[in-house]
Write a structure and sequence with these properties.
two-stranded antiparallel sheet, 15% strand, alpha/beta, 48% helix
């Protein structure tokens, strides 16, 4: 009886694996959902598997290099290749606010590329993420700054401390100024938060532009292997600026990022996706 059960299990397992392989190779919708599942599961694992090592140096930016390494392996598994340009523009000997256009949850893989290139990177997240353990604990250990979005006074105090960290610890605060995910040809209007922090800390803004994810189409449910270019733009100084300079700073930053976003996206589309 045991041999019969083992044989049935083997047949069932083989049939299941064959079904998954056939569906993955023949159905773009199945592949779309499968890849996002793989992305979610492996990203969670890569963020939490290094917890024992992170505990030795809590709140140290170097802890973020461990899940970043894992994220780069996830990119390889998904068939996504990132090319980085403009490393010579990285702010040196100073903290800064890093602005990145926000397209999808796959931007986590962009952060995985940026972390080992820019030293002392950190991010801001809503405080609810901290309670999603063990991921929340891992996020805290690699230096994530948690804010209470429902408490404006508390959030402002946190941002003020963030400005101090940028000045004193030369931290690089990665933020998505659009505030929401958007993968269209035009960047959304930028929120003011990142620019308030930069002016408060009198630190430069480091724009980073990622080309459109042409390999993903949410409408058609396709997720193919693909290429993306990450361009690090020259820093924009804020020294001597006040709140009155905020609108001009936002416009200058968005214009610079939009120009590169449009040009670099067109170039990569022509090179890899017009065949």
């Amino acid at each position: 009886m045991l041999l019969i059960n083992d044989y049935k299990f083997e047949i069932t397992s083989t049939a299941t694996i064959m079904f998954i392989i056939i569906m993955y190779t023949s159905s773009h919708a199945f592949r779309y959902y499968a890849k996002y599942t793989i992305f979610s599961v492996l990203s969670y694992i890569s963020a939490t598997i290094f917890l024992p090592l992170m505990l030795w140096r809590p709140r140290d930016y170097r802890n973020g290099l461990l899940p970043a390494w894992g994220g780069r392996q996830v990119s390889k598994i998904l068939g996504i290749k990132f090319e980085m340009k403009g490393k010579e523009n990285i702010v040196q000997n100073s903290g800064c606010v890093v602005l990145i256009n926000h397209q999808s949850c796959l931007d986590l893989l962009v952060l995985s590329e940026i972390y080992p290139v820019m030293e002392k990177c950190t991010v801001i997240s809503k405080k609810e993420i901290f309670y999603f353990w063990p991921f929340g604990l891992a996020s805290w250990l690699w230096g994530t700054i948690f804010i209470d979005r429902l408490n404006a006074e508390s959030a402002q105090r946190t941002l003020n401390k963030t400005g101090e960290a940028i000045c004193n610890k030369q931290a690089k605060l990665c933020m998505f100024p659009e505030g929401t995910r958007h993968g269209g040809p035009e960047l959304l209007n930028f929120k003011k938060g990142a620019f308030h922090v930069a002016i408060s800390a009198q630190c430069p803004i480091q724009p980073v532009v990622v080309t459109q994810y042409f390999f993903v189409d949410h409408g058609k449910r396709t997720f193919d292997p693909g290429h993306a270019v990450i361009t690090i733009l020259p820093p924009i100084p804020t020294e001597g600026m006040t709140k009155e300079d905020l609108p001009g700073l936002i416009e200058k930053s968005r214009t610079a990022m939009q120009e590169v976003y449009t040009k670099s996206s067109a170039e990569i589309k022509a090179k890899y996706y017009n065949s």
